[in-house]
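Design a sequence for this backbone.
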């Protein structure tokens, strides 16, 4: 059962404690798309570079893939966003908040 209109999948709910941190910065968290809280992006991001940098960190329970999507909510409404999709590989090893903070540090 979805916990809210923005959290439609178990993956989104598990990632939200970390990707929810993106709501306070100039990144789009995929809200309103099928990638809600499982992807992040911005018009100015190089998706491949970001993906490579995050993959190199070997964060537990997660892998990243480059993605491009059209934002439907701020920031970047109606703009193409380049970024990464977060794919959970092991729910028991995922550290969502640590992942979110590491994503923010890597982009900064």
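Sequence:
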């Amino acid at each position: 059962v979805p916990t809210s209109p923005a959290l439609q999948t178990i993956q989104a709910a598990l990632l939200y404690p970390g990707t929810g941190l993106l709501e306070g910065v100039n990144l789009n968290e995929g809200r309103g798309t099928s990638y809600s809280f499982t992807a992040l992006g911005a018009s100015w991001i190089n998706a491949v570079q970001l993906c490579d940098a995050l993959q190199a960190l070997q964060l537990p329970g997660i892998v990243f893939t480059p993605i491009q999507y059209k934002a439907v909510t701020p920031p970047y409404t109606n703009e193409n966003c380049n970024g990464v999709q977060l794919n959970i590989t092991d729910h028991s090893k995922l550290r969502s908040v640590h992942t979110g903070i590491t994503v923010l540090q890597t982009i900064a």
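The chain has a mean pLDDT of 94.
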